[in-house]
Specification:
Helices cover about 45% and strands about 20% of the residues. With about 750 residues, it is α+β, with helices and mostly antiparallel strands. The strands form six sheets. The protein has an eight-stranded mixed barrel with strand order 19-20-22-23-24-25-26-27, surrounded by four helices. It has a five-stranded antiparallel sheet with strand order 2-1-5-4-3, sandwiched between helices. It holds the Pfam family EAL.
């Protein structure tokens, strides 16, 4: 077959366009490379010039600290003499904290005058133990000021060795880091301690600000502000800190972009010329070919597509061949359409229609008996989908589908029934429980997607086929059993029986009544005291939700909370609880009997609502003090999405609202997670408290948690204190507060204890 005239002309014009395109691309790329090289050289020089400023930060304090430690006035460790020795250094208060501590670690005096001011223990203990000045360049967030800082300590000499230490906490972000004259404002300089990931200091407009924690060793090209930058990195040898200098790539390559626009304009002119010529050829040559192709596509005989003859001019042959290729692929397309009519396009499992067809087939096959149906509903998939988007949700479903198929016998048929629901058909299965246990383990597992650690969990309903049942009957019974498993605490399984049917009906009645409970004023809060174990005084109260049902009496959350979470009523109820608790704290404060009230926030509220806005509105509407409220979140709720949760909790604390980590020890958190969480206190779960004095492992765990919490500045509350022995054990371990029936039962607001002794 020879070349057509159109082909030759188009080929010629195409070659010209390709040549122009290659030339423009090469020139543009060379220009961008040159501009980028110049920017990188300038950034390297800038980082090298800024590095010494951080290297001398702690070194400059060593002589001053040594002279101060040698001051005879400090050796007696008398507060008055100590204050006089520190007075000449008052000018450094904005840039550092200066504290003198004794051998027992207690504060003797400080530049701020606060007798309870604390400093990092590890630094001054090492200085006193070694008898030398300790220069600790590891950056930490100063709990007293929130500044990123480093600590330097010098021992105060005595006759028999050090009697104390002088400790300076130097703020690494004071004064603000400034760019040298002549450097573009789009340039950013950031200093990072690679050991902790803390940003020690940064220039104005930098994407990472002082006090941030960065998870990377090499900076990503695109920062959290969405700006792409060129970065150069140097290491400051004295501190080991990483000094980064970066500039907006658009600023660095602005000249190259201007050149590219000029070249593109030139190229656009050439393209316009080629298009004009091509249109002229199209009118003369291509239209007849199109008409031929349309005629072939429209030719059918009895619904069967007939191939077109491949003869005639080259253009006609090309169209005929393309049409015939379509005919060849027609059967494959039909097969794929038939497949996806019965299969889920995301997971390639059977869909609802395919599973229903298979179930009807199995019900009619006596060899499939005994037949069991499993109905799986993911417990927290909606939270993941709402928090991270449908792309992450879809990838999670695909991975979970693979794990489910791998966990069950080959004879079982797995289907995605819709959304976050899976149905498994189990023919010839007299006892499904081993398989159900394997599935439960899969559902409890962690799935990692793009650095996210996701745990969704799932509840499983089991139904067994009986004589005369239809497929819809079997699915309905498995669905009912699944909801009963979800009500029992999520993450478990239940098998259908008549009792579960009654429970399902009961659930529907509870849901119907609960939809009107807030409007009818049927919800109430009872208050249980949190007692200071050292003094026996009430240190606050926890607000516990109750439902004053018109016919069933006072109901605890166990009777209705799971229904609220599954039907999204939890958001209306959570908003009411925040408003009621805030209103009550305002009333108590106005009456001269202030109480600190803790309220619980569910995982659904944390991930699918703006908790910060809800609580702030409640405080504002009630005229309450933010410090009178404490938000309690469970450990498992935090772990569902740590990044999002931490952001919400930090915003709450910024408003002055306290944060407590509830049921600590029942989830799967690590010590690193605990360090990240912006909490004021943790509450040790009652299961550990109940075993105190009887289980050495629990004793060790509780002691370790208390020690760790105190080391990072957290208060500790022991939950479920019901005996004098448990209270005494917690007191010996140094637990700050206790809560439980021994110390006080939940009572209406008028009976809630003031800040006085309760036991």
């Amino acid at each position: 077959m020879g070349w057509s005239v159109t082909s030759l002309v188009v080929a010629g014009f195409g070659a010209c366009l390709v040549a122009v395109g290659v030339l423009i691309t090469w020139v543009t790329a060379a220009s961008f490379d040159s501009e980028r090289d110049r920017a990188e050289d300038a950034l390297s020089a800038l980082a090298e010039s800024e590095a010494p400023e951080f290297g001398t930060l702690s070194e400059s304090a060593v002589p001053l600290l040594g002279d101060l430690a040698a001051n005879p006035a400090l050796r007696s460790l008398r507060p008055g003499a100590c204050d006089r020795a520190l007075a000449p250094l008052a000018s450094v208060r904005d840039a550092a904290r200066l504290v003198v501590v004794g051998l027992d670690g207690r504060t003797v005096c400080s530049l701020s005058g606060d007798p309870d001011e604390t400093v990092p223990a590890a630094t001054y203990l090492k200085a006193m133990a070694d008898g030398v000045t300790v220069n600790d360049n590891e950056v930490f967030v100063d709990p007293a000021t929130g500044h990123p800082a480093i600590a330097v300590a010098a021992p105060v000499p005595g006759r028999s060795g050090p009697v104390g230490a002088v400790v300076v906490v130097i703020f690494t972000d004071v004064p603000d880091l400034a760019l040298p004259p002549g450097v573009d404002e789009a340039t950013a300089v950031v200093a990072i301690d690679p050991d902790t990931g803390l940003v020690a200091g940064s220039t104005s407009g930098a994407p990472y600000v002082a006090g941030d924690i960065v998870p990377w060793k090499e900076p990503p090209a695109v920062g959290p502000d969405g700006v792409e930058r060129i970065w150069r990195v140097v290491v400051e040898p004295t501190t080991g800190w990483t000094i980064l200098a970066g500039v907006d790539v658009n600023v660095a390559t602005s000249a190259a972009r201007d050149q590219r626009r000029t070249l593109l304009g030139f190229g656009a002119g050439i393209v316009a010329l080629v298009i004009a010529l091509a249109l002229g050829l199209h009118r003369r040559l291509a239209w007849p070919i199109r008409r031929l192709g349309a005629s072939i596509a429209a030719s059918r005989s009895g619904g069967v597509v007939r191939p077109a003859p491949e003869s005639g001019p080259a253009e006609v042959v090309e169209v005929a061949r393309a049409f015939n290729d379509l005919v060849d692929s027609h059967e494959d397309l039909v097969q794929r359409l038939r497949h996806y009519a019965r299969h889920d396009p995301l997971t390639d499992l059977l869909n609802r229609r395919g599973a229903s067809d298979e179930l009807d087939r199995l019900l009619g096959d006596h060899e499939a008996a005994p037949l069991v149906v499993l109905f799986i509903d993911l417990d927290r998939f909606k939270l993941v989908n709402d928090s991270h988007g449908h792309v992450v949700g879809d990838r999670l479903l695909v991975e979970l589908a693979h794990r489910i198929v791998a966990a069950v016998p080959d004879t079982w048929i797995v289907s995605r029934f819709g959304g976050d629901e899976f149905v498994i058909l189990c023919p010839q299965t007299p006892e499904p429980r081993p398989g159900v246990e394997a599935l439960s383990e899969v559902l409890r597992g962690t799935i990692r997607i793009d650095g996210l650690e996701l745990r969704v969990g799932g509840s499983i309903g089991i139904a067994r086929a009986r004589c005369g049942m239809t497929g819809d009957d079997l699915i309905r019974e498995a669905d009912t059993a699944m909801y009963c498993a979800k009500d029992a605490g999520r993450g478990g399984w239940a098998e259908f029986d008549d009792k579960l049917q009654a429970m399902a009906l009961e659930r529907l009645r509870i849901e119907a009544d609960l939809r009107h409970a807030v409007r009818r004023g049927e919800l109430v809060l009872h208050y249980q005291p949190l007692v200071d174990l050292a003094t026996g005084c009430a240190a606050g109260v926890e607000a516990l939700l109750r439902w004053q049902h018109p016919s069933r009496g006072l109901l605890s959350p166990a009777a209705f909370l799971s229904v609220a979470e599954d039907t999204d009523l939890i958001f209306e109820i959570g908003s009411w609880v925040a408003g009621e608790a805030a209103r009550r704290t305002a009333e108590w404060r106005a009456a001269g009997t202030p109480r600190r009230v803790s309220i619980n926030v569910s995982a659904a509220e944390l991930l699918r609502t703006d908790v910060v806005a809800t609580v702030a509105r409640a405080v504002s509407d009630a005229g309450a003090e933010p410090g009178d409220l404490v938000i309690e979140v469970t450990e498992s709720a935090v772990l569902t999405d740590i990044e999002s949760t931490v952001a919400q909790l930090e915003a709450l604390r910024a408003l002055g609202i306290g944060v407590a980590l509830d049921d600590f020890g029942t989830g799967f958190s690590s010590l690193s997670h605990l360090r990240q969480l912006p909490a004021d206190e943790i509450k040790i779960d009652r299961t550990f408290v109940a075993e105190l004095g009887h289980n050495p492992v629990c004793d060790a765990i509780v002691a370790s948690v208390i020690t760790l919490a105190h080391a990072i500045g957290l208060k500790v509350v022991g939950e479920g204190v019901e005996t004098d022995q448990q209270r005494a054990h917690l007191t010996r371990l140094g637990c700050d507060r206790g809560q439980g029936y021994l110390l006080g039962r939940p009572v209406p607001h008028e009976d809630a204890p003031p800040l006085r002794a309760v036991g």
